[in-house]
UniProtKB/TrEMBL annotation:
<comment type="similarity">
    <text>Belongs to the complex I 75 kDa subunit family.</text>
</comment>
<keyword id="KW-0479">Metal-binding</keyword>
<dbReference type="InterPro" id="IPR006656">
    <property type="entry name" value="Mopterin_OxRdtase"/>
</dbReference>
<dbReference type="InterPro" id="IPR000283">
    <property type="entry name" value="NADH_UbQ_OxRdtase_75kDa_su_CS"/>
</dbReference>
<comment type="function">
    <text>NDH-1 shuttles electrons from NADH, via FMN and iron-sulfur (Fe-S) centers, to quinones in the respiratory chain. Couples the redox reaction to proton translocation (for every two electrons transferred, four hydrogen ions are translocated across the cytoplasmic membrane), and thus conserves the redox energy in a proton gradient.</text>
</comment>
<dbReference type="InterPro" id="IPR001041">
    <property type="entry name" value="2Fe-2S_ferredoxin-type"/>
</dbReference>
<dbReference type="GO" id="GO:0016491">
    <property type="term" value="F:oxidoreductase activity"/>
</dbReference>
<dbReference type="InterPro" id="IPR054351">
    <property type="entry name" value="NADH_UbQ_OxRdtase_ferredoxin"/>
</dbReference>
<keyword id="KW-0560">Oxidoreductase</keyword>
<protein>
    <recommendedName>
        <fullName>NADH-quinone oxidoreductase</fullName>
        <ecNumber>7.1.1.-</ecNumber>
    </recommendedName>
</protein>
<keyword id="KW-0520">NAD</keyword>
<dbReference type="InterPro" id="IPR019574">
    <property type="entry name" value="NADH_UbQ_OxRdtase_Gsu_4Fe4S-bd"/>
</dbReference>
<dbReference type="Pfam" id="PF22117">
    <property type="entry name" value="Fer4_Nqo3"/>
</dbReference>
<keyword id="KW-0001">2Fe-2S</keyword>
<dbReference type="Pfam" id="PF22151">
    <property type="entry name" value="Fer4_NDSU1"/>
</dbReference>
<dbReference type="InterPro" id="IPR015405">
    <property type="entry name" value="NDUFS1-like_C"/>
</dbReference>
<feature type="domain" description="2Fe-2S ferredoxin-type">
    <location>
        <begin position="2"/>
        <end position="79"/>
    </location>
</feature>
């Protein structure tokens, strides 16, 4: 490990570290534009110049210079100061004075560093150059005259997103960053380039001209658009969420977020349920809470009561519904609303045991019935990192573009019983083998996939390579709370009274009894219900969610629900006084204490450990997959379907619809 001095401070850094990283280890701030910790080194902005001895008598780019023994680095000498001022002058030659109208204002690296490291005045009188705007799709707004050619967006598209659709054309002063043929960028992670851009060249198109950062109230919470459990920050003003950005969590999402996570928030204020409704004469009519509760209490259901949890529901809501049903003498609970009925006797057998971060360490990977690019985009990026370390990837299912090289084994699940030699050889040599089973294979291939855990030796000391990838934020929490019937949702069809907790993907024609929808959007569930009780979205309540790897995480409320809508658990608590026994909690803290007593694993944030005890299932796999569960990445739930941005993304990026862009 190299030892060197930074401004007289001796530091020791890992082999391969750069001088810039050594400076940071010594507590020194080094300005930079092109360098980013998660991207390859470009070394083209030159803002990170430092003086190094021994070495040439000129400043050197610290981001591209390896740290070595006996180096002396100086970060504040007159030479370094003069060099940084010169670089900043050059960067600002053609940069427009757009700060008052730029969406990056207040969060701009160029602003901050020009104040901290610039000269303070300009010596240039020549005309500035202008660059025509580029079209990058419905997510990213471009003002390319502001671009300083740091190339972060290019490197992100190639290295992380795996979609090589952003690049540079021309040379020197004429260099421009553009998407391929100025078409929309088709990556589901394209919004991350807005966070990466150190100036205002790439900004968020849906958020354009909406607010300034100092106007917003920041709330830390958890994303529910998929089962990854992306850590996010919701920025709100008044009673509306205006923006969603990712938080850094190395174990879950690093610092990325999918476009659905970022931009579905404009659906939070559209198509909302803001008052109760009761069906009269075949039509839903507005009602008071008392009238809605009375209509439910009038149903003579006895103990024939069921609850179906939707994909976005928090654990507190599911526990309150479970307690309500228990007071009515029922245990009919189900969270797999689309009809899956896989074995849940062992949670380890339906968990992502390797963990999301652990995926990077795998050296042989078999994907079974999963399109990870849409089902869990931020797990897909981890597989790309594993491939860079030498991992081989095989897949069973219909061929699709996963952004990396895959050896496809066909779409017939029977191949699990007779894997090709190339697969068995790769897994036989692997130190950390990994199988990922998706929703497309769970029905016909769960037993065969579990058999692979034995035949491919996936479970070893310190390593469990068997994984199931879920697509719903509520799924693992629901399974921990018992939301699973042996026959799946079919076991609930005959119930006389059914509560649908934000469940919109159910085949409602199978339910003949009285239907109560507790949710937040006027979607499929509300249209089929006999009584509609307006609930709160994930942004409007504090809640607990468990991601696909069994990680317990909590989110906070950012805004209040609209109109007469209430937090879901409070609705169920109030209803219990009318239809049965009053539930034994009056506050969120009280509910949580009851929930922790019932399921101790939910008490503490972090990974809930499930002991590996795979059930003995029929290992005969059969059936040919004709597709994957998610047909449209951008319209997977009620919030997305209410979002104009997600509708535009679906129309343009999935269905190929053309949109005319007005000249600006």
């Amino acid at each position: 490990m190299p030892k060197l001095k930074v401004d007289g401070i001796e530091v020791e850094v890992p082999q391969g570290a750069t001088v810039l990283q050594a400076c940071e280890a010594a507590g020194k701030e080094i300005p930079r534009f092109c360098y980013h910790e998660r991207l390859s080194i470009a070394g083209n902005c030159r803002m990170c110049l430092v003086e190094v001895k021994p070495g040439p008598p000129k400043p050197q780019a610290s981001c591209a210079l390896p740290a070595a023994d006996n180096q002396e680095v100086f970060t504040t000498t007159p030479m370094v100061k003069h060099a940084r001022e010169g670089i900043m002058e050059f960067l600002l030659i053609n940069h427009p004075l757009d700060c008052p109208i730029c969406d990056q204002g207040g969060e701009c690296d160029l602003q901050d560093q020009s104040v901290a490291y610039g000269r303070g005045q300009s010596r240039f009188q020549e005309n500035k150059r202008a660059v025509t705007e580029k079209y990058m799709g419905p997510i990213v707004k471009t003002i390319m005259t502001r671009c300083i050619q740091c190339t972060r967006c290019i490197r992100f598209a190639e290295e992380v997103a795996g979609v090589e659709e952003i690049g540079a054309i021309y040379r020197g002063e004429n260099m421009q960053i553009t998407s391929y043929l100025e078409e929309a960028v088709t990556s589901e992670l394209s919004g991350n380039v807005v966070d990466l851009c150190p100036v205002g060249a790439l900004t968020s198109k849906p958020y354009a001209y909406e607010a300034r950062p100092w106007e917003l109230r920041r709330t830390l919470t958890i994303d529910v658009m998929d089962a990854v459990g992306t850590n996010i920050r919701l920025d709100s003003r008044g009673r509306q969420v205006l923006r969603c950005v990712p938080r850094i969590n190395e174990d879950v999402n690093e610092e990325w977020a999918s476009d659905k996570t970022r931009h579905a928030v404009d659906g939070l204020v559209r198509r909302r349920l803001d008052r109760p409704f009761v069906r009269k004469g075949g039509k839903l009519v507005e009602a008071t809470w008392d009238e809605a509760f009375a209509a439910i209490a009038a149903v003579d259901a006895g103990s024939s009561v069921a609850a179906v949890a939707g994909d976005l529901v928090d654990c507190e809501t599911m526990y309150a519904a479970k307690a309500l049903l228990a007071s009515m003498g029922s245990t009919l609970l189900e969270g797999r609303q689309t009809g899956m009925d896989y074995d849940t006797s062992s949670l380890a057998a339906v968990n992502f045991n390797t963990t999301i971060a652990g995926t990077e360490e795998a050296d042989a990977i078999l994907l079974v019935g999963t399109n990870l690019r849409w089902e869990a985009p931020l797990v897909n990026t981890r597989i790309r990192k594993a491939i860079k370390r030498g991992a081989k990837v095989f897949a069973v299912g219909p061929e699709t573009d996963l952004t990396y090289k895959v050896q496809w084994l066909g779409a017939d699940l029977s191949v699990l019983g007779d894997l090709p030699d190339a697969v068995t050889t790769a897994f036989g040599e692997a130190k950390k083998p990994m199988v990922i089973v998706g929703g497309g294979a769970l029905k016909g291939g769960h037993g065969a996939a579990l058999k692979l855990a034995e035949t491919l030796n996936l479970v070893r000391d310190g390593w469990n390579g068997f994984n199931v990838v879920h697509m719903a934020a509520s799924r693992m929490g629901g399974l921990m709370l018992g939301y699973a019937q042996k026959g799946g949702i079919a076991d609930l069809a005959d119930a006389k009274l059914t509560f649908f907790l934000g469940a919109d993907e159910v085949d409602f024609s199978r339910f003949g009894g009285f239907k109560v929808y507790v949710g937040h959007h006027g979607d499929k569930g509300a249209a089929a219900a006999d009584v509609v009780l307006p609930g709160a979205t994930y942004a409007e309540k504090s809640g607990t969610w468990v991601n696909l790897e069994g990680r317990v995480q909590r989110g906070e409320r950012a805004v209040f629900p609209p109109g007469d809508a209430r937090e879901d658990w409070t609705i169920l608590r109030a209803l219990s006084e009318v239809v049965g026994t009053k539930l034994p909690f009056d506050s969120l803290a009280g509910l949580r204490e009851e929930m922790y007593t019932a399921v101790p694993a939910l008490r503490h944030e972090g990974l809930a450990r499930f002991e590996w005890n795979a059930p003995a299932l029929d290992a005969t796999a059969s059936g040919v997959m004709d597709g994957y569960p998610i047909k449209d990445f951008y319209l997977t739930n009620a919030i997305c379907r209410a979002s104009p941005t997600m509708q535009r993304c679906s129309a343009e990026l999935i269905h190929g619809q053309d949109f005319a862009e007005a000249a600006e």
